[in-house]
Q: What sequence folds into this?
């Protein structure tokens, strides 16, 4: 149909020229010697040139040599002749009339059925504004990360100072009960500092790998809360998974509270071979955190009644934020606390 309609060469040329002129992006048609056969209206407007100074001229001579770009020479002199086409070839260049521009070049060599000549279609997409916005976004992200890092550093230092002051007060008081409460407060401040420190080190664009995060956190808890004279170990298991930084922070605080609870109540000074296990498993959008110990639980395996202590209240509040359920089972072989977020939990 196309061949029948355009039997006259002039008609075909008129159509081709109209197509070139209609395209919104700058487009140049080059002959075999890289002289301009035609250019789109958008090319003239974008690069502030006119047709008389463009058509018939060698591409590299246009505008006093402003198109004599090394990467463009590579594209037209080597890549296109060898490959026949090239897409999204990025070039940056300073133009005298319009300033620095970032462009994506798309080039294709066209062979004709009659004759041995060929032409090259060179499409030009100006992505300068897009690259500027991307660079500005990257800079904002970099500044945000630096600010967050500075804030994390200051928060951690402040918490450590508070913990030191609390410990000094604990050593100074005469009341054993007051000292115990101050030591509990000290441990919680230290644990919050540990969560903040290790969470910040694990976060990548808002997500956290839970396996390494919990392993690092439990190592820190072990070093800060278990003395050399207490042979108690903390182990981490499970299939890990990825969590948001907000959820990871809450889960880290729950782990800390439950580990503190086990260290306080499950083991006495004579305990040997004490073990606390932290397991985190994921299945789709569901997850379960389990903290168990092999210390002294209730004599028979029963569901433990909720306690009213500070630690229990903290765990409940954090679990509620996570839309999770807390179940505690205590028996002669130890205590196990499960925090479960699952689709059935909401039904």
A:
């Amino acid at each position: 149909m196309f061949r029948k309609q355009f039997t006259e060469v002039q008609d075909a040329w008129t159509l081709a020229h109209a197509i070139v002129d209609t395209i919104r992006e700058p487009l140049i048609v080059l002959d075999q010697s890289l002289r301009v056969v035609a250019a789109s209206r958008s090319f003239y407007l974008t690069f502030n040139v006119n047709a008389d100074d463009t058509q018939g001229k060698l591409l590299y001579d246009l505008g006093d040599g402003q198109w004599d770009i090394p990467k463009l020479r590579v594209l037209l002199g080597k890549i296109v002749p060898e490959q026949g086409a090239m897409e999204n070839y990025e070039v940056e260049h300073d133009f005298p009339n319009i300033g620095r521009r970032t462009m994506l070049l798309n080039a294709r060599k066209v062979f004709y059925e009659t004759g041995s000549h060929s032409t090259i279609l060179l499409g030009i997409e100006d992505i300068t504004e897009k690259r500027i916005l991307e660079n500005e976004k990257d800079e904002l992200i970099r500044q945000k990360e630096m600010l967050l890092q500075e804030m994390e550093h200051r928060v951690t230092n402040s918490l450590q100072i508070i913990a030191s002051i609390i410990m000094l007060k604990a050593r100074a008081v005469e009341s054993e009960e007051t000292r115990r409460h101050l030591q509990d407060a000290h441990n919680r401040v230290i644990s919050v500092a540990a969560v903040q420190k290790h969470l910040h080190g694990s976060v990548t664009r808002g997500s956290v790998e839970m396996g390494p995060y919990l392993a690092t956190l439990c190592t820190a808890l072990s070093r800060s809360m278990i003395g050399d004279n207490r042979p108690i170990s903390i182990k981490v298991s499970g299939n890990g998974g990825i969590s948001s930084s907000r959820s990871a922070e809450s889960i880290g605080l729950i782990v800390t509270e439950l580990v503190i609870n086990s260290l306080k109540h499950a083991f006495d000074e004579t305990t040997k071979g004490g073990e606390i296990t932290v397991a985190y498993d994921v299945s789709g959008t569901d997850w379960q955190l389990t903290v168990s110990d092999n210390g002294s639980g209730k004599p028979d395996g029963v569901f433990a009644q909720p306690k009213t202590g500070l630690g229990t209240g903290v765990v409940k509040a954090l679990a509620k934020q996570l839309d999770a359920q807390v179940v505690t089972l205590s028996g002669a072989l130890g205590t196990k606390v499960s925090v479960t977020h699952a689709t059935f939990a909401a039904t």
